What we know:
18 helices
Amino acid sequence: xxxxxxxxxxxILILFIILEGLFAFVFNLQCNMTQEFTSTGYFxxxxxxxxxxxxxxxxxxxxSVLEKPKxxxxxxxxxxxxxxxIILNETTxxxxxxxxxxxxxxxxxxxxxxxxxxxxxxxxxxIQSYLAVGENNVPAYLTMHWLxxxxxxxxxFDYRTMSFAIWCIGAFTVMFQSMRHNKFWISFSVLILLSVxxxxxxxxxxxxxxxxxxxxxxxxxxxxxxxxxxxxxxLTGLTISICLLSRYYVAMWLPLWAFVLFVSDCKKQLFxxxxxxxxxxxxxxxxxxxIRDHAxxxxxxxxxxxxxxxxxxxxxxxxxxxxxxxxxxxxxxFYEKYLHTDLQTGFNLxxxxxxxxxxxxxxxxxxxxxxIRKRINNKIFLMASFKIYLSIFLAxxxxxxxxxYITDIFISIVILSEQSRYNIGVKSKVKG
Length: 432
């Protein structure tokens, strides 16, 4: 019975991941389903994913890691992974050759500006120098959003190749972890889901790969989920730091992470990890950049806000904002309500709702953990709570760029892999 229960929950999680991909990249873009249907459907599936995980491991406060599979079938996955890599690599090369990011977006050009100034020994966050070359917005990226691209800048190869390389490292690490403990069918599912999702992105919305660096950010958060399940405090602190210094979805969730560890009698682990985070954030951002110009970090937040409101006025052929009507997020509701009155009021209202909703879900998840802390393992709760929090955050984000949602779906795949490592059919041997 425990084995059957485990398999049923895993199948449900896999179906939810498939639905996330369909709602994000197929139903709206290819099937012309309504914005209401796709945005609501995506949110419900993403939100429930976390609760399914909680239900699966409820009343299992201690976990045992599955032994390494003794069957040789898992070695079939290595050549399959190699084939998938070759296909996705060729697909990426084709996108790089056919899409010129310059006329479409300033993401890569802004990163190029930052890397060039860094390599030449100048302050990347010098606002006056940036405005002097004719740009209207300051470079609203923290360190780990652009620092890896100093490598392709120095060696003169395409930035997007670096994005793909970092994603491949993340995907390979997920597969390696999965094959160490999971059954063949789980590892095979993880491989297929990772590969098909990337291919689906490339086919349905290639600009995500050709114009943005979001597949790199997705890799960062794949590492974060694995780091939450790792015993190494340094690794956990490093993955949190990297995410904080890229797209900082993790920032508002960290108080819940700290609370969960604190009340789980993991205080020593918590305080050591915080010290590691302070160390990495200091050497990667505070000491080299923030101390030099205290306005830099404030400018990044202002920059994001300005870019978001601009998207409410960036209309497509149907006179609708491009990024508000790509099938995800609820920003379109506020746009429609305030279209004929004051869009700035609608934008500000959505911003307040985003803050309240994310704060409220963090508070409620903390309250939930307090009552069930003796009935569920903190690793499982952390993964589930982050997924639930992120579903709320992305639902009410002011500019729901479609490329932001790929991180959410890749996170689901990594959670599937990581939670499958744990045996729910025997008494646990590992706590915390």
